[in-house]
Structure formats: structure tokens, C-alpha cells
Design brief:
The chain is built from 4 helices and 8 strands. The protein is α+β, with helices and mostly antiparallel strands and 187 residues long. Strands 1-2-3-4-8-7-6-5 form an 8-stranded antiparallel β-sheet.
């Protein structure tokens, strides 16, 4: 008789434990996770409520080039607008004292950069079939591209390094004249 009571006790204890686990599981499933609740509410989830850590954006957005100059300590002159690229954004990478101005239209963008030093600041690591050094207003500018089109221009002027890159989904670039016109405008 004692064995039957022990077996019944074990059965009842196991049943009770399984019921408790089932109740906890159902309760957990009925509540959205913190990140799901944030997205359901229409707000972006922060790193405090996310299951994954994200690297913070190192770029500081600027409203004007004067705002960028206040962060970097130098002026950057670029065209006010570029035909075919109606959207303009300005950002600074303070750790590198790098200023970037992007002109964009959809997924196509034209990126102009300036920073102190002599390193390549383009961020473009593509291998281009063509590379030519040309003189633009006394500055030696390296034009790189494919199929007679220019995708990247890099140069030094005084204590600063510059780059202009064109990035389009179809991979097309600019003519050499179009790119050198942008180089002349960037100071």
C-alpha cells in the first residue's frame, strides 16, 4: 500500500509541476516581448529593449555647413545643389574631423568628403579598371572608374584630403567633365 501512495504522490507532484510550467509558458506567450511592444506602438526599439546590441551611429547630422564647421574647425565649400539630386544631407564624423555632404535621389547618391590629413577618406574600396591623374585648377586629382565613366575622384589640397564618389544601382558614373566640375566647386 505504501508503494501505491508513493507512486500516486509522485504522479500528483509531476502533474502539478507540469501544470505550473504550462501556466507559466502560456502567460509568457500572451505578453509581447519588450521590443515587439515597442514596434507595435510604432516606436523604434532602443538597445535597452532589444535582444541584440547595436553600434551607435558615429555620424552627427548637421543642418548647415556652418554647423559642420563648428564641429570640425574648418569650412567646406560645395555646390548648393546638384542637378538630378534634390536631397542634401550634411554629416560630420567628429572622431576623424570628416565632413560629408550627400546629394541623393532615390538610391543614387553623390558623396563629397573633406578631412584634415592625406589619407583616402572616400570609403570606396572598389577596384576600378581605369585610373587617371588630371590637373584641376592646379590640384592633382585621381579619377577612377570603368568604361570611360568616373565613379571616384580623390585629391589633396593644402592640409586637407578630399573625395567625391557617385553611387548608383546601375553602376554608372559621371563624365570626366562632370566630375572635374564638382572638384572645382569643392574647397
Amino acid at each position: 500500500m505504501k508503494n501505491i501512495h508513493s507512486i500516486n504522490f509522485i504522479k500528483h507532484t509531476t502533474l502539478l509541476a507540469c501544470s505550473a510550467l504550462l501556466a507559466v509558458s502560456l502567460a509568457a506567450c500572451s505578453q509581447p516581448a519588450a521590443s515587439d511592444a515597442a514596434s507595435t506602438a510604432g516606436s523604434a526599439s532602443s538597445s535597452a529593449t532589444s535582444d541584440t546590441a547595436q553600434i551607435p551611429n558615429p555620424w552627427t547630422g548637421c543642418t548647415t555647413l556652418a554647423d559642420a564647421a563648428a564641429l570640425t574647425g574648418y569650412d567646406f565649400t560645395v555646390p548648393d545643389s546638384v542637378d538630378g539630386y534634390p536631397d542634401v544631407t550634411i554629416a560630420v564624423l567628429e572622431s576623424e574631423q570628416l565632413t560629408e555632404v550627400q546629394y541623393s535621389s532615390g538610391n543614387a547618391r553623390l558623396c563629397l568628403r573633406k578631412a584634415p590629413g592625406s589619407d583616402d577618406i572616400s570609403g570606396d574600396y572598389n577596384q576600378y579598371a581605369e585610373s587617371n591623374a588630371v590637373d584641376v585648377d592646379g590640384r592633382s586629382v585621381t579619377l577612377q572608374g570603368n568604361d570611360g565613366q568616373v565613379q571616384l575622384a580623390t585629391w589633396l589640397d593644402g592640409d586637407y584630403t578630399y573625395s567625391i564618389g557617385i553611387y548608383r544601382e546601375d553602376g554608372t558614373g559621371l563624365t570626366a567633365d562632370e566630375m572635374t566640375g564638382l572638384v572645382k566647386a569643392a574647397k
